[in-house]
Amino acid sequence: MATEPETADAPDTYDEFLDHVKRMTYVGDAAGVLNWDQQVMMPDAGTPARAKQTSVLSTLRHELLTDDDLSDWLDELEEADLDDERAAVVREVRREHERAVRVPEDLVERISETTSNALPVWEQAKEEDDFGAFEDTLEELVELQREYAAEIDPDRDPYEVLFEEYEPYLGIDTAERVLERLAEELPPLIEAVGDSDVTLASPFEGTYDESDQEELVRAALDTLGYDWERGRLDTSSHPFSTGTQFDARVTTRFKPGDPMDALGSTIHEFGHATYTLGLPQEDYGTPLGSNRDLSVHESQSRLWENHVGRSKPFWDLFTPTVSDHLDVDTSPRALYEAANEVYDDNLIRVEADELTYHMHILVRFEIERDLIRGDLEVSEVPQVWNDKYEEYLGVRPETDAEGCLQDIHWTHGMFGYFPTYTLGSVMAAQLDAAVREDLDLDSQIRAGEFDPLRDWLGEHVHQHGAHYTTPDLVEEATGEAFTADYFLDYVDEKYGGLYDL
């Protein structure tokens, strides 16, 4: 997808505008590399300097985004006769610019420095199982985000304003509608699974060396087709993926007694990286070479993790590799069952199955929404968190570490992010259904042929970057408006079969 064709109106203005946008993007990407380094490689004592560095880069990007010249170019280009691609670039930059000009630079700097300093505080509080050690920091983060939302639009719901940082086009009403529907329709299925007499296989016993698990997840990345020339695998306290179409890195973590945890998280982050690596290289630095926000990004990771990595055909393919690396005598059916077991006593979101996962999201969504709206005090978070887990999942955390301190998102100041996990999972099922209209996906997975799926996603999702809004991209890719129907049909069929419902 090219961004350079001549148009009759304002070609010089557009070129100047685009150069400015690219510099802005490069500064943001540089900050992303520093963030990756802080979570993966940086010595513990490096935080004070890193906080200053990331603060300066955030401020510089904010200055570029709010520059008067950029405002003038946007106004001029708004009246120009632009082709569809250039109009999309202007639309995306204008949306971000109009939000940013309302936010003072000193607030941007304070948010960046506070979130950078918050990371080691959260890590220590989690390690020591002490919410009190993180409480003041979380209070500051919440206040900063309220202030940020009020600067953008003091007359709107502050949580809605923050949600639009991560999903600007589906709307908070869509997120609430989807979450409410899943909150209504998933619990009966979860309850039926819990009442089932079926016991799924548990092929893993004892513990497995981290080195053996790392070799296994590297083999999984090889099997799926990860481009090692443009990526790398490392460990972090919370698995994540970051980068550009030239350098998209993944991280994972290892649990001695549960090698499926590392395998699942690695495939999940592979899905994120595959989307990033599939963005148009010629459009790097512009919205046409950028991802279409977090719901779409999550749809890519969830599609690979759940619809590929938890499928029967994948275990037909990958079971010998597991047996070789972990020295276990098992079968494809046993590993398929182990990958899809529903846990009625799980407290940890990133370890959750496809069904209960969305109850974990609902807890976080309700708590962060109430925090930002001022309906919940920070000091009340542990108690409310534990109460909601008991209500929605029938299990109560005994520690802060396995409760409200388990996720990193609030540490980064990311309030409004969590609903995109459920939106992405729902979107993944809709995309998977569309893929299967065109491809014999199960046969291809079983044969280890992943290029057709990657090519389909490249054609229908990746190559478009942020050209389309989220609803338009979903309709362009699947031929239908965004819907939760496919996800609910998928889990009903899959778990009904597994648990003989």
What keyword list fits this structure?
501 residues; mainly alpha; Neurolysin, domain 3; 3 strands; globular; disordered N terminus
Could you characterize what this model shows?
It is a single chain. The chain is mainly α and 501 residues long. It folds into 2 domains: 11-128; 172-498, Orthogonal Bundle (Neurolysin, domain 3). The chain is 62% helix and 3% strand. It contains 20 helices and 3 strands. It has helices at residues 11-40, 47-65, 68-78, 84-100, 105-127, 132-152, 158-163, 172-195, 210-224, 259-277, 293-308, 312-326, 332-339, 357-373, 381-393, 419-438, 441-446, 451-460, 470-478, 485-498; strands spanning 233-235, 241-244, 247-252. Strands 1-3-2 form a 3-stranded mixed sheet. Helix 1 (11-40) packs across helix 3 and helix 3 packs across helix 4. Mean pLDDT is 95; it is low at 2-8.
What percentage of the residues does DSSP assign to strands (E)? Answer: under 5%
Biggest sheet features: 3 strands, mixed
In total, the number of strands is 3
Q: In the residues, how many domains can be counted?
A: 2
Given helix and strand content, the structural type is mainly alpha
Mean pLDDT: 95
Order of helices and strands: HHHHHHHHHEEEHHHHHHHHHHH
CATH architecture of the largest domain: Orthogonal Bundle
